[in-house]
Amino acid sequence: MFTLVREVGHVELKFTVAEPSHEALRAALGAGSERIRNVYYLDTPDLTLRHHGVLVRVRGGQRPNDSVVKLRPIDPAGVPAAMRRCADFTVEVDVTPDSFICSGALKRRLGRNAVERAVSGKESLRSLFSEQQLALLHGRVDGRAAKTVAVDGLEALGPVEVHRTRPRPDGPGRGLELQEWTYPDGSRLLEVSTRCTAEHLLQTAAHARSFLDRHDIALSGPCPTKADATLAYFTRR
């Protein structure tokens, strides 16, 4: 993990909180700036994209919308030079208490209500993505499977209402971020995370874990990522 982190340089530490500790975590972090988003993942009914290591996510809601094509896992040494030079392409290592994985993501900023218009059929889903994003998607999905992933034919799995809260910079939870994902049946997934550079990984991890332990925040056991939990939820339904 440390070799990979040093190569990439950027890390996101993620902790999934057990349900009995949800209220305690909200109280410990206190008030802060909040964003509310409606999140959808696009895929085929049998999750062809996910099986090829591709995640396609769009976010609507209060703020300007965006779309992301993410490759997970990715070998950072294999990223084409042209993609590395793209300002909107990022490579990052996600670290949880029980695992780590490297991913590369290409993001596109969209106008307000663009996602809602597309998922309701007023605009095409393809209109949410740049040519670079589509090339990244199709470059990962090869062979016969590529014929099943025309973007306009994908299903919009969602929405999940996501509340993202960042505590005040002078508060005890400074540097942390809370994401609360609420599914249509009322079930919730709470994740607290923080980003850092490779050289500050141990210090940042120790600070985050100390904060959680100090407030008796229990973590859930090994669990799927937010993306996989969301894909599983909507394909089961």
Descriptive report:
This protein has 8 helices and 9 strands. It starts with a helix and ends with a helix. With 237 residues, it is of the alpha+beta class. The model has no long low-confidence stretch (mean pLDDT 91). The protein is globular, with a radius of gyration of 18 Å. The chain has helices spanning 2-8, 22-29, 48-51, 81-84, 114-119, 131-140, 201-214, 226-236, and strands spanning 10-17, 32-43, 54-61, 66-71, 89-96, 99-109, 155-167, 177-182, 188-197. A 9-stranded mixed β-barrel has the order 1-5-6-4-3-2-7-8-9, surrounded by 5 helices. A hairpin with a 2-residue loop joins strand 5 (89-96) and strand 6.
> Order of strands in the sheet with the most strands?
1-5-6-4-3-2-7-8-9
Mean pLDDT over all positions: 91
Biggest pleated-sheet summary: 9 strands, mixed, barrel
Described by its quaternary structure, the protein is single chain
Structural class comes to: alpha+beta
